[in-house]
């Protein structure tokens, strides 16, 4: 057994960013774990995604053509099992998404494999593969080894690994999958669009986030205007979203979005709870503004500014 198998994800003809991030995750361990690196695409027109998935480091793209126009967990489980039987990988990577989590754990049971969900760190140690995920409400990082496991299935957190950009030269191979018994087990009822907010925290390079320190909903427009003026995407902490001051897509953190591409993060009146830090503590440059010198946000801040957020806004409005 050797190699890594990635399961690509797509919805309504659009490849999920996570699919290529999985390639980035695999490349982080491919050299030490051993190749080849294969990507499996399941669907009505799997060939449509070959070009986007053919990245440097990918050795083979397996196309499992099915009659299913929509995602079907049972079909995916069957297709990945077929691919695993054919390729005998030591590691299978699936996105930690609504789709990925619906078939990854049954798949692990069927393969009798090791399993971990929501993984954001991967390495190969003397003991073999090591996956890192969080525990206790994101308060601690947990390193997991899989001694004696010939194969391991992991679901990988989005916006964590960098997607490789350079095109590759993978071989494309059709994969026949016997779906007889599983077809029709799930019924697709339809899609429900999430309300659009025009905000993509995961892609933004410059974010200015507001927290409970802005005191009142009536102050939101002022900070929204300031964010626009300085060219920042407006983010927020959970209480701001929970109170309905800003729509949910603005929320940064564990139950919000990870600021995966952010280079500069300004945190205004945010205490720095672990759940918020989860979404932004990796950012290269963090500027925190908080009246409390002991606020935990200062533990991760590159620059701290112990002052009132409104005075800070006054000053920024004057110069920008
Ligand atoms: C399972 C779970 C998931 C969660 N997920 C998330 C998540 O995804 N994202 C998230 O953000 N939170 C999340 N939370 C909530 C989190 O624990 C905190 O409660 C939340 O982040 C606090 O938000 P805050 O910093 O805006 O508010 P507070 O903690 O109340 O902090 C407000 C800060 O503003 C400062 N301040 C007050 N007035 C001023 C002023 N005038 N000028 C300057 N500073 C001022 C205060 O000193 C304080 O530090 C989650 C919690 C749980 C249990």
Supply the key terms.
320 residues, alpha/beta, Rossmann fold, 2 domains, seven-stranded parallel β-sheet, five-stranded parallel β-sheet, 17 strands, 25% helix, binds flavin-adenine dinucleotide
Would you tell me which CATH topology of the largest domain applies? Answer: Rossmann fold
Strand pairing plus helix content: what structural class? alpha/beta
Task: Please write the CATH class name of the largest domain.
Answer: Alpha Beta
CATH superfamily of the largest domain: HUPs
- How do the strands line up in the largest sheet? 7-11-6-1-4-5-12
Number of domains: 2
Shape: elongated
What's the N-to-C terminus distance? Answer: 59 Å
Low-confidence stretches: none
Overview of this protein structure:
It is elongated, with a radius of gyration of 22 Å. Helix 3 packs across helix 4. The protein has 320 residues and is an alpha/beta fold. Strands 7-11-6-1-4-5-12 form a 7-stranded parallel sheet, sandwiched between helices. The protein has a 5-stranded parallel sheet with strand order 14-13-15-16-17. The mean pLDDT is 94. Helices cover 25% and strands 26% of the residues. The site of flavin-adenine dinucleotide has 26 residues, from helix 6 and helix 7.
């Amino acid at each position: 057994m050797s190699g890594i198998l990635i399961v690509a994800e797509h919805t309504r003809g659009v490849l999920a960013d996570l699919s290529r991030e999985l390639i980035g995750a695999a490349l982080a361990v491919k050299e030490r774990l051993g190749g080849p690196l294969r990507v499996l695409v399941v669907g009505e027109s799997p060939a449509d995604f070959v070009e986007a998935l053919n990245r440097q480091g990918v050795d083979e793209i397996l196309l499992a053509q099915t009659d299913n126009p929509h995602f079907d967990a049972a079909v995916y489980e069957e297709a990945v099992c077929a691919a695993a039987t054919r390729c005998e990988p030591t590691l299978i990577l699936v996105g930690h998404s609504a789709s990925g989590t619906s078939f990854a754990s049954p798949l692990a049971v069927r393969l009798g494999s090791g399993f971990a969900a929501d993984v954001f760190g991967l390495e190969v140690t003397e003991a073999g593969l090591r996956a890192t995920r969080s525990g206790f409400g994101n308060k601690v990082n947990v390193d997991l080894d899989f001694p004696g496991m010939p194969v391991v299935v992991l679901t990988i957190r989005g916006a964590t690994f960098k997607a490789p950009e350079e095109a590759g030269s993978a071989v494309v191979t059709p994969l026949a999958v016997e779906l007889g018994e599983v077809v029709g087990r799930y019924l697709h009822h339809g899609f429900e669009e999430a309300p659009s907010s025009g905000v993509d925290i995961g892609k933004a390079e410059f974010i200015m986030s507001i927290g409970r320190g802005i005191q009142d909903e009536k102050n939101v427009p002022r900070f929204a205007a300031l964010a626009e003026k300085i060219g920042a995407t407006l983010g927020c902490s959970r209480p701001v979203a929970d109170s309905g001051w800003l729509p949910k897509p603005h929320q940064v953190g564990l139950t919000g979005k990870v600021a995966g591409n952010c280079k500069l993060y300004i945190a205004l009146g945010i205490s720095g709870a672990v759940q918020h830090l989860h979404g932004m503590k990796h950012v290269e440059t963090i500027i925190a503004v908080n009246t409390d010198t002991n606020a935990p946000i200062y533990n991760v801040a590159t620059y701290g500014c112990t002052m009132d957020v409104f005075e800070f806004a006054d000053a920024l409005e004057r110069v920008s």
